[in-house]
Amino acid sequence: MAYRVCFVCTGNICRSPMAESVFRARVAEAGLDGLVEVDSAGTGGWHEGDGADPRTVSVLRESGYGTEHRARRFEASWFSRLDLVIALDSGHLRALRRLAPTPQDADKVRLLRSYDTAAGDDLDVPDPYYGGMDGFEECLEMVEAASEGLLAAVRAHVEGQAA
Fold first, then answer.
1. What number of other Cβ atoms are within 10 A of residue 90's Cβ?
2. Which of 4, 70, 72, 127 is catalytic?
3. Which ranges carry the Phosphotyrosine protein phosphatase I domain (predicted)?
């Protein structure tokens, strides 16, 4: 059975689809396709059915990542099938933990930048939506930096299951 990871931001058009795309690429590079499933969603449904923000698509494309995406809202019922829920900021972390049906489900929620040892005390990935391209580029840098540590944690879990 695959290990399932879902990235969550506000509307699922900027940060979480970026994180999904980057992490999916890391999983593929690590040869973990089929062992790890990667997905994303938003805490709200404002953009359901929309593609990623054009600036997200541009930054991802320029860096060689996939850009296929349709926004959707995170549902509490998903906790039962997910192994890890990755929040992009502390507001998402709180909202997801409140939404979790059980304490075990709430324990599945982690901040993305908690996997980046160089992140310091501020573990939020700032929302680039209301700014310019530089915010999207900064977001990608943060996502890429944290994805390495997240991949190491997921790999350890997946390899532990296989043993």
1. 12
2. 127
3. 3-153
Catalytic residue among 9, 55, 105, 116: 9
Please report which confidence band the pLDDT of residue 44 belongs to, taking 50, 70 and 90 as the band edges.
very high
The helix/strand count (H/E) of the chain reads as 5, 4
Question: Going by C-beta distance under 8 Å and a sequence separation of 6 or more, which residues neighbour residue 8?
Answer: 16, 40, 41, 42, 43, 74, 85, 86, 87, 88, 92, 96
Fold of the 3-162 domain = Rossmann fold (3.40.50)
Please tell me which residue in 14, 15, 39, 53 is annotated as part of the active site: 15
Instruction: Name the residue ranges covered by the structural domains of the chain.
Output: 3-162
| Known catalytic membership, residue 15 | yes
Model confidence pLDDT, tens digit, residues 75-127: 999 999 999 999 999 999 999 999 999 999 999 999 999 999 999 999 999 99
Give the single-character DSSP code of 114.
G
